[in-house]
């Protein structure tokens, strides 16, 4: 099975994804606690169960989220950090790294890109999983401005900066040399960009368990679960559950890089 066809959306198993992309380490980058749990928690659970090491980097603590108008934002951030740590343990994420961006105001600045390059060079992932930088008009809620900004910052970091030995020379001086990332897996994609569906049948309960850890974010937990189940079933199309992505090959043997 080829996962690189731009004209189709193949349904692959997690084992096929791991084997074809040669995955050993994955870095997931998101804007807020619960982002990856909505977008890719079942895929992450399948990867970690197969022995792939997954690190999660969150740009904010999500202090502008929730439904309690009387809660101090700092307290919301503390609660959401704890919720994400609990959710991460459900799906086997080995580490959660928090940066210090302001919830609701993330921008793809060169400072943020540099922070992401540092995290990438520290972990040296085979694949980076994050948000799509293009707005999804099919369901606008997928395209929160922080998500779009996160996706843009991640794509810029992945190419060219993480592999450019002349970029962020202070990182190389600190023992973090440039290297090439092979793959991007983008969630929240516009429908027309989806070119890969991962069959996560059997892992859906771990996704729901991870989502359930985000207590502060669910005004109607039952409706949330129904909606997510419908999305997973629709993505599969044959009675199972699947998560959808835009898979981008960044580097392979045919790639000619320039900076």
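^ Assign residues to that structure.
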């Amino acid at each position: 099975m080829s996962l690189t066809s731009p004209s189709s959306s193949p349904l692959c198993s997690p084992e096929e994804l791991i084997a074809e992309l040669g995955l050993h380490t994955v870095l997931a980058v998101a804007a807020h606690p619960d982002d990856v749990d909505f977008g890719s928690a079942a895929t992450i659970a399948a990867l970690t169960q197969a022995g792939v090491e997954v690190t999660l980097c969150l740009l904010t603590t999500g202090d502008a989220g929730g439904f309690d108008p009387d809660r101090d934002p700092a307290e919301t951030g503390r609660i959401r950090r704890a919720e994400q740590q609990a959710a991460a343990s459900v799906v086997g994420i080995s580490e959660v790294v928090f940066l210090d961006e302001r919830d609701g105001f993330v921008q793809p600045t060169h400072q943020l890109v540099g922070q992401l390059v540092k995290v990438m060079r520290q972990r040296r992932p085979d694949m980076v999983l994050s948000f799509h930088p293009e707005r999804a008009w099919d369901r606008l809620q997928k395209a929160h401005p922080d998500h779009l900004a996160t996706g843009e910052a991640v794509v810029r970091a992945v190419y060219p900066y993480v592999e450019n030995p002349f970029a962020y020379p202070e990182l190389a001086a600190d023992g973090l040399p440039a290297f090439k990332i092979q793959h991007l897996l983008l969630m929240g994609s516009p429908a027309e960009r989806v070119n890969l569906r991962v069959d996560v049948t059997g892992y859906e309960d771990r996704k729901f368990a991870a989502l359930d850890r985000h207590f502060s974010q669910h005004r109607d937990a039952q409706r949330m679960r129904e909606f997510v189940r419908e999305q997973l079933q629709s993505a599969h199309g044959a009675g199972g559950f699947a998560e959808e992505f835009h898979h981008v090959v960044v580097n392979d043997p045919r790639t000619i890089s320039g900076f």
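The chain has a mean pLDDT of 93.
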